[in-house]
Design brief:
The protein is mainly alpha-helical. It has 12 helices and no strands.
């Protein structure tokens, strides 16, 4: 996160792109709740009031940040509609995991041009599949809910050994009491891991396979 160049007189030359990039780095490091216009101005070496020329308030800044995350998703796809939908879903999921603070913001802030372009592309892919309109609509929401929901779960559970040990310790009583054997087995499965399964991809393929079957059923 470098400081912007300075014009004569020592004042920093600000641009919206540099403001957003700097804010993105701060959000990734500290979380979106810790980001403030004052802290951002300090990081940029600028006066806080000068930021308001580019962004009206923090909410507007967060909208720009979420759209910046969406810009990381490659919209060009290859293969048939299932391959294209899979590529978009995986790329979006990975972008959210790179910026965990954006996961809860993704579905709450007003979309920017990159978010709209991403949504348009996924809808176009589903339209190209020639699914019935109601099935395409359900498929779109199933895919977007899976992308966001799985990312939220991944971040909440964590991936580190410390997180796993903490979970193991907290559920030890549940695993040994025997009152809820199915729950205990389910928790044990999470604690011990799912083998080499690509969990996100596996469920994603279930959704896409279901859409393909719905298309076939409607054509009969």
């Amino acid at each position: 996160m470098g400081r912007p160049k300075k014009e004569r007189g020592g004042k920093p030359v600000l641009t919206l792109d540099h403001i957003v990039e700097t804010a993105l780095g701060m959000a990734d490091e500290q979380g979106i709740a810790q980001l403030s216009m004052r802290k951002l101005a300090t990081e940029l070496g600028a006066g806080v009031m000068s930021l308001y020329y580019y962004v009206a308030d923090k909410d507007t800044l967060v909208e720009a940040l979420v759209d910046r995350v969406a810009s990381e998703v490659e919209l060009e796809t290859t293969g048939d509609w299932t391959a294209a939908a899979r590529q978009l879903a995986v790329a979006t999921h990975e972008a959210l995991l790179r910026h965990p603070w954006a996961i809860p913001e993704w579905s709450t802030v007003w979309p920017g041009p990159y978010r709209f372009a991403l949504t348009e592309q996924l809808l176009e892919v589903l339209a190209g599949a020639q699914l019935p309109p109601d099935v395409a609509d359900l498929g779109f929401h199933a895919l977007t809910n899976h992308i966001q929901g799985f990312a939220r779960q991944r971040v909440a559970y964590g991936d580190t050994q410390t997180d796993t040990e903490e979970m193991r310790n907290r559920v030890q009583g549940l695993l040994t009491q025997g009152d809820y054997p199915r729950v205990a087995e389910h928790v044990r499965y999470h604690v011990e891991g799912h083998g080499n399964h690509d969990e996100f991809g596996y469920v994603l393929d279930l959704i896409l396979d279901g859409l393909a079957r719905s298309k076939a059923d409607c054509q009969q």
